Amino acid sequence: MFSSEFISAASFVMSILYRSFCLLVRRKPIIEFLRRFLCCAAQKSLVCCIATIKENQSQQKEVAMYTDMMKQFNDQAQRMTQPMTRLNELAVESIERLAEFQLATLQSYSEMGVQQLKAATQIQDLEGMQKYAAGQVEAVKTVSKKVADDAKVLAEMGASFKTELEKMAQESQSAVAAAVKPATKKAPSKAA
């Protein structure tokens, strides 16, 4: 709305225009017509200005409403995708640890194999063959122990992933339950 100062200033300007015009033209009917015309034009422009201001305020309210709506939508989308993002991060970490484990295991088994091949190339006679055969029994024990240790490590990695996954699922379930409680309180109850 317009302030009283603005309306006073507009009235003052209109009265100055009217008086100036009266001094220029001394004819009463024309002056009265112009005075009425100017007053009507001023009133219409004030009404137009007021309507424009009200329309602008309405548009600002709509923009604020849509801005709030988009902010709420973005917040909800972020809350909905956050568990999936955490799940993806956990999966990537698990894959990374598994890849590192597999590379280390591959390297150690390759080294064992290369050592056995080197030992086989050193056989020159029957005595060398007997040493090689005795070494093979020891190599099989070493490989068996290494396989068992690697299986334990792999099982621990799987258990760790499962624990983290269950923890995330429980946190997500708690978050959903917390979000649903206020919504159910706000929902109107149906009268029978």
UniProtKB/TrEMBL annotation:
Q: Where is the composition biased (Basic residues)?
A: 183-192
Residue span, Phasin domain: 71-171
Q: What species was this sequence derived from?
A: Pelagibaculum spongiae
- Compositional bias, Low complexity, is annotated for 173-182
Would you tell me the protein name for this molecule? Phasin family protein
InterPro entries, per the entry: Phasin (IPR018968), Phasin_subfam-3 (IPR014176)
Q: One short Pfam family name for this protein?
A: Phasin_2
Q: Which residue intervals make up region (Disordered)?
A: 173-192
